Write a sequence for this structure.
């Protein structure tokens, strides 16, 4: 089990930056693991609580915490898969048995799936877009925290993340939506690197 750092007190004075070759090397080699390659074990309930605590240390304009979590473990993963298959069949009445079986298996690989829910305060002066970006940052920070703790993971969405009936089945309010499903577990093999973008042509300096 990883050694999770204690949370600093709310009055702590923290360094604005801290040089770390180890962190740079970690980020420079970070790789998501394909969901089908994720297996048991996954983080325990206590470990996941620590990971979520660390993951929540993200940019959050005016400290709104405009997000929450829905966790799927054990039999809940199978029940989610049944919901996906049922809804898929409603949308595609001609869906084959293989397609429905694929929908039922969506949450069957990783032992822990965390749905990060964007839950913005629409009436607040902080733009909803900023609040949604914070939810996206949380998805990625959860991946980083999990990887640093020794867990493999992947941030996925899929059609289910945008379906109103699925959202209602997961208990989302009408103004909430899924920012991502973060699949966490153990990878039993190395993952091949994939091509990365060359950013030079994407950089411009405004004058």
């Amino acid at each position: 089990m990883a050694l999770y750092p204690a949370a600093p007190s709310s009055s702590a004075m923290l360094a604005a930056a801290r040089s770390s070759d180890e962190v740079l090397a970690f980020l420079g080699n970070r790789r998501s693991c394909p969901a089908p390659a994720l297996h048991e074990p996954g983080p325990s309930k206590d470990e996941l609580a620590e990971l979520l605590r660390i993951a929540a240390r993200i940019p959050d304009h005016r400290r709104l915490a405009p997000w929450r979590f829905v966790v799927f473990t054990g039999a809940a993963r199978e029940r989610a898969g049944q919901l996906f298959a049922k809804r898929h069949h409603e949308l595609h009445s001609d869906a084959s048995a293989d397609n429905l079986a694929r929908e039922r298996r969506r949450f069957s690989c990783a032992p822990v799936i965390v749905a990060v829910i964007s839950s913005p305060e629409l009436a607040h002066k902080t733009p909803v877009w900023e609040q949604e970006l914070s939810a996206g940052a949380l998805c990625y920070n959860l991946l980083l925290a999990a990887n640093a703790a020794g867990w493999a993971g992947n941030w996925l969405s899929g059609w289910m993340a945008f379906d109103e009936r699925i959202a209602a089945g997961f208990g989302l309010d009408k103004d909430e939506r899924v920012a991502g499903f973060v699949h966490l577990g153990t990878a039993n093999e190395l993952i091949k690197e994939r091509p990365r973008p060359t950013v030079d042509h994407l950089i411009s300096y405004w004058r």
